[in-house]
From TrEMBL:
This is aldehyde dehydrogenase (NAD(+)). Homotetramer. It comes from the Bacteria. Residues 32-494 form the Aldehyde dehydrogenase domain. The lineage of its organism: Bacteria, Pseudomonadati, Bacteroidota, Cytophagia, Cytophagales. Keywords: NAD, Oxidoreductase. One of its GO terms (molecular function) is aldehyde dehydrogenase (NAD+) activity. It comes from Hymenobacter telluris. InterPro entries: Ald_DH/histidinol_DH, Ald_DH_C, Ald_DH_CS_GLU, Ald_DH_N, Aldehyde_DH_dom, ALDH7A1-like.
C-alpha cells in the first residue's frame, strides 16, 4: 500500500525479527517472543520485531559501556562532525523515513516529514553545540589561584521514547548526548519500533564510514520490563523518558531510588486562552491545528480553550463550522488532515472519556463518533470532538491522548483565565491569544502561566527545536532539545588550581601543622 514495500527497501530494513542493535551488529531475541507491527492506517502488517530479553539488554549495556571509553576521547567538535553526517543522511532519507513514520504511527505525511525535519534541525543544532559546551570561570578568593568549571561526558544514556514522536524525540536526546560524549541506548515504543530500526540502519552507515566502534548508538526493542531494567540500572546514569505521567512516575521513582538522573517529559493538559482582545482568525487556525493535528496525540496537543464570554459564541460557531468537515482518512493520502489513532485501545479511551465527561455535565457539540465504512475498516478513525465543559470536571483534569477539545467559558479578567489554565496537575505548554499588551505581559509574568512553554498568538503545539522543551508539575520538570538542555547530559566539575608557593585555606581558616 502506498509503495510501502519500496519505502522499506529504500530504508534498507532487512533486520526482520531484530530485537537489538549496537550500531553495527544486530541480534534477535534470545527467546522467541516477537511482535508484529500493523499500520494504524489500514491494519496491514509492516514488519515483525523480536522482544529483547534481560540477557540481550545486558549485552547491549556492556557494548555501550565499552564504546563510551572510546567515544569520550573523541574531541567534541569531531563528535559534532559525526552528527553532521547523520544530519546529512537524514536529509537523504527524509522522504522514505517520513513515509514510514506516517504509516507506522498514523500521523499525516506532512507531519511525518516534519518529524524528520525536526531530527535534521537538532543535528544542526548539536553540530554547533559541539563547539560550545561552555562552563564558567570564576575568581578565587585566594591569591594565585584559579577556578573554573568544566563539563565531562556522563556515560550511558537510556532513552525511552513514545509512539507519538517515534524518532524526533529520540534525536533530541541522542544528538545532544552524542556531542556531549555520551553513548545511548534507545528503547522505542513497542507500538512503533520499525521507525527505530530504520533510523538505526541510517546510523550504521555513518558509523561504518567513519570506522567507529559499535556501541555508541544502541537500540533495544522490548516491553515495559526493559524500560524498568534500564531505570534500575546504575550503569545508566541518565534515563530520559517521554510518555505518560503514570510511566514517568514509575521511572522517576526507580531512578531516584538509586540517585540517578531522570529527564522526564510527560503528559500535558495544554490550554489556549482567548481573551476578548484575541485575533480570532489566527486563533482559530492555531486551535484546530493544536487540537486535531496528529489526531490529538501530541504531548503539546491543545486540550482546553479558555474563552472570554464576549467571544465565546463566536469562537464556538467558527469551530462548529470547521470540525464536521475535517478531512479524516489515510494519513498518506494528500489532503488528509486527521489520521487514525494509534490503536483500538486509544479509540476505546477516546470513547470512554467522552461518555464520562458527558456524565459529569459536559455538552458534546460535535464529533465523537468512531468511523466505519470504506477506508475506516481498521476501527482506528474517530471524529474529533468538541465539548463544552467546566474546568474542574474530572475528565477535563486528565490528559486523554485523543482529539477531544474542551471549551471553557470565563467572564472576568485575564487573571481568571490564567487561574483556570493553571488549575490542572500538568504544566507543559500554554498559549494566549490577545492583542492587549497588559494581558499578554501578565500572562508571561511570574503570576502568569505556570507551564514550561508559554506562547503569545501561537498555539500550544509545534515548538521549534531551538528552545528548551518540557514542563512543570506532573509533566516531570525535564528539559530537552535546545537552549542549555545539553547540561543534563554531562557531569559538571568544579576545578580549583593553586599556582602559588603557599597553601592558603578558603574562608581564611588557620590550620598550621
Ligand atoms: C511530543 O509530543 O512528545 O512541539 C513532542 C511539538 C513538537 C514536539 C512534540 N515539536 O508539538
Amino acid at each position: 500500500p502506498h509503495g510501502m514495500q519500496q519505502v522499506l527497501r529504500e530504508l534498507g530494513i532487512q533486520a526482520e525479527n531484530a530485537a537489538w542493535s549496537t550500531g553495527l551488529a544486530w541480534g534477535g531475541a534470545s527467546n522467541s517472543r516477537s511482535k508484529t507491527i500493523h499500520s494504524p492506517a489500514d491494519g496491514r502488517r509492516i514488519g515483525t520485531v523480536a522482544l529483547a530479553t534481560t540477557e540481550d539488554y545486558s549485552h547491549v549495556v556492556e557494548t555501550a559501556q565499552a564504546a563510551f571509553k572510546t567515544w569520550r576521547t573523541v574531541p567534541a567538535p569531531k563528535r559534532g562532525e559525526i552528527v553532521r553526517q547523520i544530519g546529512n543522511k537524514l536529509r537523504e532519507y527524509k522522504e522514505p523515513l517520513g513515509k514510514l513514520v506516517s504509516y507506522e504511527m498514523g500521523k499525516i505525511l506532512q507531519e511525518g516529514l516534519g518529524e524528520v525535519q525536526e531530527m535534521i534541525d537538532i543535528c544542526d543544532f548539536a553540530v554547533g553545540l559541539s563547539r560550545q559546551l561552555h562552563g564558567f570561570t570564576m575568581h578565587s578568593e585566594r591569591p594565585a589561584h584559579r577556578m573554573y568549571e568544566q563539563y565531562h561526558p556522563l556515560g550511558v544514556v537510556g532513552i525511552i521514547s513514545a509512539f507519538n514522536f517515534p524518532v524526533a524525540v529520540w534525536s533530541w536526546n541522542a544528538m545532544l548526548a552524542a556531542v556531549c560524549g555520551d553513548v545511548c541506548i534507545w528503547k522505542p515504543s513497542e507500538k512503533t519500533p520499525l521507525t527505530g530500526v530504520a533510523v538505526q540502519h541510517i546510523l550504521a552507515d555513518v558509523l561504518r564510514e567513519n570506522e567507529l566502534p559499535e556501541g555508541i548508538f544502541n537500540l533495544i526493542i522490548g516491553d515495559a520490563e526493559i524500560g524498568a531494567q534500564m531505570a534500575a540500572d546504575p550503569r545508566v546514569p541518565l534515563v530520559s523518558a517521554t510518555g505518560s505521567t503514570r510511566m514517568g512516575k514509575k521511572v522517576g521513582e526507580v531512578v531516584g531510588a538509586r540517585l540517578g538522573r531522570a529527564l522526564l517529559e510527560l503528559g500535558g493538559n495544554n490550554a489556549i486562552i482567548l481573551t476578548e482582545h484575541a485575533d480570532l482568525d489566527i486563533a482559530i487556525r492555531a486551535i484546530v491545528f493544536g487540537a486535531v493535528g496528529t489526531a490529538g496525540q501530541r504531548c503539546t496537543t491543545t486540550r482546553r480553550v479558555i474563552i472570554h464570554e464576549a467571544v465565546f459564541e463566536d469562537v464556538k460557531a467558527r469551530l462548529l463550522k470547521i470540525y464536521p468537515s475535517l478531512p479524516i482518512g489515510n494519513p498518506l493520502q494528500e489532503g488528509t488532515l486527521v489520521g487514525p489513532l494509534i490503536d483500538q485501545d486509544a479509540v476505546a479511551a477516546f470513547t470512554k472519556a467522552l461518555a464520562d465527561v458527558q456524565a459529569e455535565g459536559g455538552k458534546l457539540l460535535t464529533g465523537g463518533e468512531v468511523l466505519t465504512g470504506a477506508g475506516y475498516e481498521n476501527g482506528t478513525y474517530v471524529k474529533p470532538a468538541l465539548v463544552e465543559v467546566e474546568n474542574h470536571y474530572h475528565m477535563v483534569q486528565e490528559e486523554t491522548f485523543a482529539p477531544i477539545l474542551y471549551l471553557i467559558k470565563y467572564s472576568g479578567g485575564v487573571e481568571e483565565a490564567i487561574e483556570l489554565q493553571n488549575g490542572v496537575r500538568q504544566g507543559l505548554s500554554s498559549a494566549i491569544f490577545s492583542l492587549n499588551m497588559r494581558e499578554t505581559e501578565t500572562y508571561l509574568s511570574h503570576t502568569g502561566s505556570d507551564c514550561g512553554i508559554a506562547n503569545v498568538n501561537i498555539g500550544t503545539s509545534g515548538a521549534e527545536i531551538g528552545g528548551a522543551f518540557g514542563g512543570e508539575k506532573e509533566t516531570g520538570g525535564g528539559r530537552e532539545s535546545g537552549s542549555d538542555a545539553w547540561r543534563v547530559y554531562m557531569r559538571r566539575q568544579t576545578n580549583t588550581i593553586n599556582y602559588s608557593t603557599q597553601l592558603p585555606l578558603a574562608q581564611g581558616i588557620k590550620f598550621d601543622v
